[in-house]
Each structure stands twice: as C-alpha cells, then as structure tokens.
C-alpha cells in the first residue's frame, strides 16, 4: 500500500521542472498539499496543472534572496498553518570552465543558489518544523567525487552534503530528519549533457552500469521515501541515485 501524505504540507523549491516537478506530482498523487516555488512562474503553473486538484501555493522565488524566501514561507504558513516536509531542489547546473577562467559572477551565481539558497530556506523553516518533519536536499554525484573544470559546482554540492549532515545532528534531537539525494545522469531539461545532445548523451548513457539515463521520477521516488515513515531511522544519509556510476568526467544531474 503506498504511503499517504494526507494533511501533510510539502514545500518544494525548483518545482518548475525536472526533479522538483516530478516530486511535486508524486506527492500530490499521495495526497500532500503543496507550496511550490521557482524563478520561472510559467513553469510552476505547468507543474500545478499536472498535480491535479490538491491545494497548491505557487510563488516566484529566487532562493538566494533571504527576503523572497521568508515571504514564501510566510505565505505558506498563512495558507496551511504548518510545514511538514521541505525539498530543497532549486539549483544551477554546471558549465565546464577551467578555474583560471572562472569569473566572480559565476562563483556567486552557483554558490548563492546551490548553497546559500538551501541555507536560506532551511534557516527560515526550522522554527516552523515539528517532530516528524523532514528535509531532503539535492546534491549530486559531483558532491561525492570531483570533476575537472567544475570546481565551483562541486564546491557547492560537496558543501551541501556537509551542511546537511550538520543539520541532521542539529535537528535530529528535535525529531526532524535531514537527508540528501545525489543524482547521477538524469534526463532533465537543465542537464548540460542533454542540452548538448549527441555524443554528450551517449557518454552519459555509457557512464553507468545500467546503461541508460535516470528519470526525474526515479529521483522523486527516493525523495518521497525519505519523507515517509519507512525511512524514519534515516538521518544524515546521502543516497546516490546513479545507476552504478563509472569513473567519468561527464556532467551529472
């Protein structure tokens, strides 16, 4: 019997496409009420249509902005009065750039979204989470092993794992769990390899033992598992969703 998320509220960042959208749709099918944000409001509206009739709040939010995040959380509480689960999925995927050619602007863009964004959301929701609540953050296989010419992206994803493990220790005594998913080669619209197409996609397909790309829905299944009772003793875990990755420099997620 599938888990039920009736009367549960899930806050999801980066819900306009890919893994964030797939997770919203999955949770909606299980009865959750949703608070969804993204920088692209049109994409959010498309996500909402695919979530059916469940209560849904949509908000245009840049997670790197403390003010916008706090306003989103405030509106979520005004609509639902509580928050049960948080999925920090908003992020910027990498561009391969040698470090000596990396600009301050590129550093700021990735760090402010991928790392500071998770900090902003997590800090903002903590006062409103109760025992039984949970947080799932999206890292990457690039947060576990380095990739040449992706130093900034890897820094954010390694850092996110460290941040999450600290939150697991800090919030665990309050009954609030924090876990991480680390996707590999996933077929999402923002995956740099998918955008390039051709040989880049072939390299990704051949880059894992299953010989195919993963889907956003397969990642969403793991996120929902981490929110559910079946994972109630998992805290500070990092789950690699990569099909059995091989050593490769191909872009992940």
UniProtKB/TrEMBL annotation:
PANTHER family: (3R)-3-HYDROXYACYL-COA DEHYDROGENASE, SHORT-CHAIN DEHYDROGENASES/REDUCTASES FAMILY MEMBER. Belongs to the short-chain dehydrogenases/reductases (SDR) family. It comes from Lophiotrema nucula. One of its GO terms (biological process) is fatty acid biosynthetic process. InterPro entries: NAD(P)-bd_dom_sf, Sc_DH/Rdtase_CS, SDR_fam. It holds the Pfam family adh_short_C2. This is NAD(P)-binding protein. The lineage of its organism: Eukaryota, Fungi, Dikarya, Ascomycota, Pezizomycotina. Keywords: NADP, Oxidoreductase. GO terms for molecular function: oxidoreductase activity, acting on the CH-OH group of donors, NAD or NADP as acceptor; quinone binding.
């Amino acid at each position: 019997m599938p888990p039920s998320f009736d009367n549960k509220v899930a806050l999801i960042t980066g819900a306009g496409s890919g893994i964030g959208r797939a997770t919203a749709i999955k949770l909606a099918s299980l009865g959750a009420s949703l608070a969804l944000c993204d920088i692209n409001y049109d994409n959010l509206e498309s996500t909402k249509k695919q979530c059916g009739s469940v209560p849904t709040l949509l908000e245009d939010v840049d997670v790197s902005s403390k003010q916008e995040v706090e306003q989103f959380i405030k509106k979520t509480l005004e609509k639902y009065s509580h928050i049960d689960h948080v999925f920090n999925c908003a992020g910027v995927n990498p561009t391969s750039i040698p470090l000596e050619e990396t600009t301050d602007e590129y550093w700021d863009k990735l760090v402010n979204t991928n790392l500071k964004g998770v900090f902003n959301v997590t800090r903002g929701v903590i006062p409103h989470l109760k025992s039984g609540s949970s947080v799932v953050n999206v890292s990457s296989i690039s947060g576990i092993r380095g990739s040449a010419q992706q130093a900034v992206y890897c820094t954010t994803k390694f850092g996110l794992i460290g941040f999450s493990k600290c939150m697991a220790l800090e919030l665990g005594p309050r009954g609030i769990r924090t876990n991480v998913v680390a996707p590999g080669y996933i077929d999402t619209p923002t995956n740099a390899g998918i955008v390039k197409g051709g040989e880049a996609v072939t390299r990704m397909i051949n880059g894992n033992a299953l010989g195919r790309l993963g889907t956003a829905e397969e990642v969403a299944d793991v996120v929902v598992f981490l929110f559910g009772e079946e994972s109630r003793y998992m805290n500070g875990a990092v789950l690699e969703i990569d099909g059995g990755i091989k050593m490769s420099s191909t872009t992940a997620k």
